Amino acid sequence: MNRKLLAASSVACLMLSGAAFAADLTVGFSQIGSESGWRAAETTVTQQQAKERGIDLKFADAQQKQENQIKAVRGFIAQGVDAILIAPVVATGWDDVLAEAKDAEIPVILLDRQIDAPEDLYLTAVTSDQVYEGKVAGEWLVKDVGDKACKVVELQGTTGSSPAINRKKGFEDAIAGHANITIARSQTGDFTRTKGKEVMESFIKAENGGKDICAVYAHNDDMAVGAIQAIKEAGLKPGTDIKVVSIDAVPDIFLAMSEGEANATVELTPNMAGPAFDALDKFLADGTQPAKWIQTESKLFTQADDPKGVYESKKDLGY
Ligand code: GZL
């Protein structure tokens, strides 16, 4: 009996018996790396979800390199896993390896980032609406600054990644029509604190010691935390001299918020694996095709939302 049939029959029997997700499934997970607190939490949650469901998760950390992800996926195919999860570091260059997985009849599910590839090459993508995340961040700033002139500097995510492309677009859409708000400088900080700090230091140097900067928009909280460090080292007050708005809602941004050093963040759930395994469950049991996009929620948090309490509620969740 071929692997797919075997997996389907074991899932079907367990589902009939009302058991949780099939035990004895093997799933390969090609994770981008551990570039941010959010990424670390996504890894933790994925491993917890797999454990709860009796799934044998084969984990591969790509250190943010696509070639390592492609190598890992080829390894999973050679091992004959039952399914593959990929958090794709960039949006392009996946067609060939996904076609190989398809030929091997191994379903692929994308986590937290979209790709530019034919939809029949993957079962579904579990991601937030990243354009909307950028829009929510931009709309917060529009409301906060009113008619005041506001020069924004932008810390972009990893070049070529769907969140960097989409969060930039969403923010620009939100500030369009508000001529008083302009993006003066924009550069990638690769989603890391270190790079976020470095790039913010260069922005501060280029903008009159930071005195001409009204706000920093960071595509994730880790770069925002790095920027906060740079702003303080320049003798300025993050959160008041320079407003700080970002995305992810990791615990440390709420610590900064509770100190008045950050202003707003848009929450991104680290639990992409739960919906992914649910969709896989149904597909393996009876071939149910999920929607090509399973969207996760996005929620704005500001200093008005009890940041200390939110920090306490999030601090032990694996970030
Ligand atoms: C977005 C996700 C991003 C996070 C960053 O869905 O891919 O990658 O916002 C992480 O923290 O590096």
What's the gist of this structure?
The protein has 319 residues and is of the alpha/beta class.
Q: In order across it, which strands form the biggest sheet? A: 2-1-3-4-5-11
Number of helices: 11
Number of domains: 2
Structural class by helix and strand composition: alpha/beta
Number of strands: 12
- How many angstroms separate the termini? 42 Å
Q: Can you describe what's shown?
A:
Its main location: other. It comes from Paracoccus broussonetiae. This is Galactofuranose ABC transporter, galactofuranose-binding protein YtfQ. With 319 residues, the chain is α/β, with parallel strands linked by helices. The chain folds into two domains: 3-128 and 269-288, Response regulator (Rossmann fold); 130-268 and 302-314, Rossmann fold (3-Layer(aba) Sandwich), CATH 3.40.50. 44% of the residues lie in helices and 21% in strands. The protein contains eleven helices and twelve strands. The protein has helices at 3-16, 37-52, 66-79, 95-103, 130-145, 162-175, 193-206, 221-233, 251-258, 273-286, 307-314; strands spanning 25-31, 55-61, 83-86, 108-111, 124-128, 150-156, 181-188, 215-218, 243-248, 264-268, 293-296, 298-302. The longest helix is centred in the N-terminal third of the chain and has 16 residues, at 37-52. The protein is elongated, with a radius of gyration of 21 Å. It starts with a helix and ends in a 5-residue tail after the last helix. The structure holds beta-D-galactofuranose. Residues 35-36, 38-39, 112-113, 127-128, 163, 191, 220, 222, 247-248, 268 line the site of beta-D-galactofuranose (GZL).
